[in-house]
Amino acid sequence: MDEGFKKIEFDSVLKKDSTSSEAPLSTKSKTLLRPKVPIKINFSNFFNIKRLGIIGVILIIFGILMFYVSFRAFAVYQKADKVYDQAKKASDAAKNQNIVLAKEELVKTRKAAEGLKQELSSIGFAKYIPLAGLYVSDAEHMVNAGIHGIDAAIITADSLIPYADVLGLKGKGTFAGGSAEDRIRTAVRSLGKVVSKIDDIEVKAKLAKEEIDHVNPARYPVLGPLKKIHNQIASAKTLVDEGVVAVEQGKPLIKVLPELLGDTKSKKYLILFQNDGELRATGGFLTYYSIFRIEEGVIHIDSSNDIYRLDDSIRSHPQAPELIRKYFPKVTRFYIRDSNLSPDFQKSMETFREFYEDSRSATEIDGIIAIDTDFLVHVIGILGEVQVGNAFFKAENDPRCNCPQVVYELQSITTTPVGYIREDRKGIIASLLYATMQKALGVSPGKYWGSLIQQAVIDANEKHILFSVNNPDAQKGLAALGWAGNIKAFDGDYLHINDINFSGAKTNMFIKQNLRIDYKVGSDGSIEKTITIDYRNPEKHSDCNLERGGLCLNAIHRDVQRVYVPRGSTLVSSKGSQVKVETKEDLGKTYFEGFFTVNPLGKATITYTYKLPFKIEGSNLPVLIQKQPGVEVLPTEVYVNGKRVEKLDLRGDKILNLKV
Fold first, then answer.
1. 569, 590 in Cβ contact below 8 A?
2. d(Cα 330, Cα 327) in Å, to the nearest integer?
3. Domain span holding position 404
4. Under a CB-based contact definition with an 8 Å cutoff, are residues 382 and 451 in contact?
5. Cβ-contact 355, 314 below 8 angstroms
6. For labeling, which of 160, 186, 372, 396 is most exposed (least CB within 10 Å)?
7. Among 191, 233, 183, which Cα is nearest to 213's?
8. Spatial distance between the Cα atoms of 261 and 350, rounded to a whole number of angstroms
């Protein structure tokens, strides 16, 4: 036997004929016995253009680019997240009225946004990739718009910081020394140096608009996670557009603000008190007035009086207008106290001024400012209890009327019958206004002023404060802000419901309203619209026996109603009016006029069905609803072809964009 292993000749074995007597190696054996050699991939063959074709090469390059873009997009997302967190800090500081901290956080936010912009530029080439490029481009425009918006906010903060103390904001202002009046005077004197910055703010706002105008929300379907992106972009576009309009149209007002506050020459304003418990076209019965003189921002009350005294001082009173003669037949003459018949505040104030200029008590004024009961309640709600002589006034609810205590107390003092002649029975209103101002000015600005200024802005937006000033630039700015009480022109559908209380009682203290709007859109684009207004009086009848000294607040509510709609609208039918509804025109609108009553513990429903004078093109219907001044809130529901599309509490003017 030979020693060692016999040499095996693989080649000879494999070459043997399959008929050989020796059994062939199995496939598994072949595999095991195959020599191990390195596996080589020929990339040149793999990427061979002839094999792949041009399309294949493009797909490979596209895949590599997509991988890179996806990788960088994750970094962009992380940067965007940091910008959001930083912006939230700035927003929180602003909400807390800390203007100095807000400015610091805005600067940090801008730095973070610049970092995001730089990160986004790393995938800037992706803008040229079909489809995906649109979204990358949108992101760039949104970031650029955000940076311009932050710049505008920083300029605004810089402008406000010197006035932080005077405005009641947190942060050390420039005018922190001296009494409250001293600080106001110093601030107003220097205001002219600051208002010029509105031009810089306007430039930044317009740059933001130019950027965001490139972004189309329609590219983001209202579906799944993209719905949130769609809504955010749409909201951002609306916010920027409204901001630009507000700056453009409000700029004239801001530039003349020092003048309006009496920086170099004192200004006089007639303050009209509208009692919204007895609702009239512009917000309430004109019950009292005062002449305020403003010198370097400091308010002085020169005089005050009952509106009836003012009427007595007017030399002649013409015949009452048809509206009064028809629904208030016992009143045959036209008085200044009834002069606010037009729902357009400026038109009503033109009539008021004509009467006022004929009064022996008239003095030269620079404008008229109307306030209602809600404004007074809100101010006292911030200041707390206010004392006038032996009377105390609070904003809390009074169970005697289920209304604010200050409202009941004022009505009780001015309206309750007494067994003697009471001189200046409404003089308590002037005393209350004076005591309220003294309480606000008698403390550190940081305690009340910030809240009072914010509340005044809210009340102006909700039409509890209305302005009609002589300066045309200022009035233009006030109208742009919606603080002038105008009936507005609008390209689309329009609605304004205007009620006049001709009962004499203060029934609007108790009346509750609800509005339902139904659109029926035809296949040809024609629109039939139905509005239904429900009125309820949940309180009992007051004791209106004057001999017993009853306080007659709640009684039968007599309501003259005018519903303003687009000019050319045609009434199809109406229900609920106790007189035949008439169709008339005024203020560039068509309006329907009716009349109804509501008893204590009773209700009424008024319905109007009419055809709009145009057909809709496309699927979007813009609608402007203007709330009547003096009405606190109007709960509203909107339906299109039977489906509810909007539900809101209307507290100011509102533009809706309905999908029909």
1. yes
2. 9
3. 267-480
4. yes
5. yes
6. 396
7. 233
8. 23
Residue written as tokens 């339906």?
639
| Eight-state DSSP code of residue 294 | E
Q: What's the CA gap between 543 and 549, in Å, rounded?
A: 8
Give the pairing of strands 493-501 and 620-626. Answer: parallel
If asked whether residues 103 and 237 sit together in one domain, one would say yes
Amino acid symbol at 73: A
pLDDT (0 to 100) of residue 45: 52
Average pLDDT, the chain: 85
Average pLDDT over residues 488-516: 96
Whole-angstrom distance, CA of residue 607 vs CA of residue 531: 6
Cβ-proximal residues to 549 (8 Å cutoff; 6+ apart), any chain = 416, 417, 418
Q: Are residues 345 and 424 in the same domain?
A: yes
Least confident of 163-172, 499-508, 588-597, 649-658: 163-172
Q: Which two tokens stand for residue 596?
A: 């109804």
Burial 99-136 (b: 16+ CB within 10 A, else e): bbbbbbbbeebbebbeebbebbeebeebeebeeeeebb
Whether residue 161 has pLDDT greater than 90: no
CA-closest candidate to residue 63, choices 135, 122, 131, 129: 129
Same domain, 62 and 148: yes
The tokens for 101 are 């901290």
Report the C-alpha gap between 602 and 283 in whole angstroms.
23
**Phi, psi for 10 (deg, rounded to 5):** -65, -40
d(CA 220, CA 214): 14
Measured in whole angstroms, the distance separating CA 216 from the mean position of its chain's CA atoms is: 23
**How far is C-alpha 63 from the geometric centre of its chain's CA atoms?**
47
Q: Are strands 267-275 and 367-372 parallel, antiparallel or unpaired?
A: parallel
Nearest in space to 576 (alpha carbons), one of 535, 521, 515, 622: 535
518 and 609 housed in the same domain: yes
> Residue 256 domain-assigned?
no
Q: How many CB atoms lie within 10 A of CB 395?
A: 19
| CA-CA-CA-CA torsion sign (449, 455, 457, 459) | negative
Please tell me the predicted confidence (pLDDT) of residue 30.
45
- Which residue's structure tokens are 């509102």? 654
Whether residue 252 contacts residue 475, with contact meaning beta carbons closer than 8 Å, is answered with no
Q: Is 138 found in the same domain as 206?
A: yes
Residue 637: its H or E element: strand 634-640
DSSP 21-74: SSPPPPHHHHHHHSPP------HHHHT-HHHHHHHHHHHHHHHHHHHHHHHHHH
**Rounded-to-integer distance, Cα 451 and Cα 383, Å:** 9
Confidence of residue 48 (pLDDT cuts 50, 70, 90): low
Percent share of the chain, pLDDT over 70 = 83
Q: Residues 205, 275: one domain?
A: no
- Count the domains in the chain: 3
Indicate if the pLDDT at residue 251 is higher than 80. Answer: yes
- Reported as a single tens digit per residue, the pLDDT across 218-234 is 887 777 776 777 787 88
CA dihedral of residues 184, 187, 190, 193 (deg, nearest 10): -130
From the list 196, 176, 192, 172, the residue with the least C-alpha distance to 184 is: 176
Half-sphere exposure of 153 (CA within 13 A, CB side): 25
Q: Looking at the domain assignment, is residue 32 inside a domain? A: no
- Could you report the per-residue pLDDT of 584-643, keeping only the tens digit for each? 999 999 999 999 999 999 999 999 999 999 999 888 899 999 999 999 999 999 999 999
Q: Is the pLDDT of residue 60 over 80?
A: no
pTM (2 decimals)? Answer: 0.82
